[in-house]
Each structure stands twice: as C-alpha cells, then as structure tokens.
Amino acid sequence: MRILIIFICLLFSLPAWAHKPSDSYLSLSIQNDHVEGQWDIALRDLDIAIGLDGDGNGQITWGEVRTKHDEIGAYALSHLTLSTDRQTCTTQMLEQLIDHHTDGAYSVLRFRSECAEVIQALHVDYSLLFDIDAQHKGLLRLTRGGQTSTAIFGQETRVQEFSIGDRSLWDGSRQFLHEGIWHIWLGFDHVLFLLALLLPAVLVRMDGHWQATREFPSVCWNVVSIVTAFTVAHSLTLSLAALDVVHLPSRLVESTIAASVVLAGLGNLYPMMISRRWLVAFGFGLIHGFGFAAVLTDLGLPHNSLLLSLVSFNVGVELGQLAIVAAFLPLAYLIRRSWSYPRLVLTGGSLAVIAIALVWFTERAFSLQLFPL
C-alpha cells in the first residue's frame, strides 16, 4: 500500500518536469592550430544562472540580453576549457547573436581558441550549468576536415578527449545507446503513456467489472503485444524523421503526445478496446516516434556512422522501455487481486495520468507555462 501511495504521489509531481530538459549545443571546428566554435545556450538557462530579466516582467528582451553580453560571454567561457596534450588554448569571444530553437530563444556565442600548435588531440572540459541543473547535457559536434564526431557532456562525462582519426565507431554507438536509455527514462510523457497502457494488463474485463487475471502467460502475452506494437510504430517514424524523410512541426508533435497520454488514461476508465490495446499503442506510437526523433536530431547524427547511431539510439530506447516493464509488471501481478489495485492503482493512477497530461497538453498547445520551474 505504501508503494502504491508513493506511486500516485510521484505521478502528481510530474508537471514540474514536463518541460524540455536543459541542453546546450556546442559546435567545434578544428583548423590546424586553432578551433572555431559556436555555442547555443538557452536564454531561460542563462536567466537562471546570471539573471537576464532586468525588469522582472517574465519576458527577456533583446535589449536586456545585449546589456549582459560581457557577463554572458564571461560566464560561458569560464565553464569551457579547450586544451591540447601540451597546453591550454586561449579563447576569445567574437560575437553574440540570438537564434530560435523549437523550445525557445538561445544566445549564440561565436568564439575562437588559439592553441599555438597543430592539434592532434583536443581535450574539452565542459561544466556549464551542472551546479544548477544536474540533468543538463552539452551536445557537441566536432569537425575536422571531412570528419565529424559527436559527444554528450553530462555530470559524469565533463572532461573528454577527442582524436577524430582514432575515434572508433563503437565509442559513438555506445553514447547513442546510453542516450536512448536515458531519454525514455526521463521522457515522462512516454513513460506515462506506456504505464497507462500497462495498468490493465493484469486484469480482465468481465460483466462490466475488472477482475484479476489468473495466468501469468496471458499477462505476458498482453504486455508483449502492447510493447511490440509501440516499438514497431515509434521505430518507423523515428527512422523516417531522423533520416529527414518526414517532418512534422514540433508543437504539433508534443501536443499530440500529451493528448495520447490523456486518451490512454481515459481508455482505462471507459474501456472500449480491451482486446486490441496493441492497436492504440501502435497508432500513438507513430507520434511518439517523432518525439524521439527530435532528441536524436539535437544530438546530431554523424554522417560516417548514420545507420549505426540510429540503430544504437533505438536499441537504447527499447532497453530503457523493457526496464520499465520489468520493474512494473511483477509488482502489478503480485497485487492484482487486492481491492486496491482496480480502485487505487488503475482508477486513481489513470486519473492522475489524465490530470498531468492535460496540463502538458495545455502548456504545449497554447504555449503557456502553468507550472513555472
């Protein structure tokens, strides 16, 4: 019972995590003895770090950003160090611009780092925002000549060394695998959609009432059909979007994902497709795939290992998804006969899912922020 109560409480705490995770986009181009760089950092993150909203009206203007150019540059460069095997490179800010990503406005910092020797290996020490947001990620694209390398900086991977010629395909594949796992775990809308479909998996509908299923194999078959349908669907659209075959507006995709969570929850309260929940998983899985693709696009697919990176990320998503199922299903099966499961877990959990997803849908569809971070 305590576990169930904690589960419901966690569901209600999710609106504060509904927004896009904090990321910055760092591009480095090695040119013999120097590095040319561009760094896109979200204005919302800079506002938290150094304060950009001078008049406190909740709107950051170009004038407010311009008056903070020196402070922005100093703050950013103090959290990025480039060096070779022999010495630290000296970095100079060249210009600052504003650009718009799908999740808002970004400060674009262009800089140049002089290394005073031909660069054979580049050491990058990245520490932006980790003291404020432990989940922050720095997404790096590194180029030298015709070669491209990608990397992700996090709390545990602040310092990385790059020698593009020696960087193996396995290194890149392992990173995309890792990011796929973490994306499904931190993609709370995807997790809630999956859980909403799994909640009735240990029950059967008879004479208008929920009853505990008797056999575990039938439960497993039900879950396998749901998870497989979801996997096939989102793998298809993830691939099409990541390979630049199909594009949908980010606002439409994110709003529809939130709507799918609402409908999945409503389906538990007003069951109409109990025997064909895999169809629901497949249909909405197509939309969730576009959401996965947005993250993969931000990470930057390397051209020399495009297919391997795509497959690695997708496998990571599936491993993360299977971990969620493995954690949920045994517990649900054990308590399926208790009075609390259909009333508290299924009904209460579904109501919580619907409430949270409605907040997400309102925020995404109408560009509102109902729960400020």
Word description of this protein:
This protein is of the alpha+beta class and 373 residues long. It is 51% helix and 21% strand. The protein has 11 helices and 11 strands. It has helices spanning 2-12, 43-50, 62-67, 69-77, 169-186, 188-198, 216-242, 250-269, 277-299, 306-334, 340-366; strands spanning 23-31, 34-42, 80-83, 90-101, 104-114, 122-126, 137-144, 147-153, 159-162, 203-206, 209-212. The strands form 3 sheets. The protein has a 6-stranded mixed sheet with strand order 4-5-2-1-7-8. The protein is elongated and about 80 Å long. The two termini are 31 Å apart.
Strand tally: 11
Q: Which word captures the global form?
A: elongated
Number of domains: 2
Helix content: 40-55%
CATH topology of the largest domain: Growth Hormone, Chain: A
List keywords for this structure.
2 domains; 373 residues; 11 helices; 11 strands; alpha+beta; Growth Hormone, Chain: A; three-stranded antiparallel beta sheet
Task: Please describe the topology of this protein.
Elements: H1 2-12, E1 23-31, E2 34-42, H2 43-50, H3 62-67, H4 69-77, E3 80-83, E4 90-101, E5 104-114, E6 122-126, E7 137-144, E8 147-153, E9 159-162, H5 169-186, H6 188-198, E10 203-206, E11 209-212, H7 216-242, H8 250-269, H9 277-299, H10 306-334, H11 340-366
Parallel strand pairs: 1-7
Antiparallel strand pairs: 1-2, 2-5, 3-6, 4-5, 6-9, 7-8, 10-11
Characterize this entry briefly.
This protein has helices at residues 2-12, 43-50, 62-67, 69-77, 169-186, 188-198, 216-242, 250-269, 277-299, 306-334, 340-366; strands spanning 23-31, 34-42, 80-83, 90-101, 104-114, 122-126, 137-144, 147-153, 159-162, 203-206, 209-212. It has 373 residues and is of the alpha+beta class.
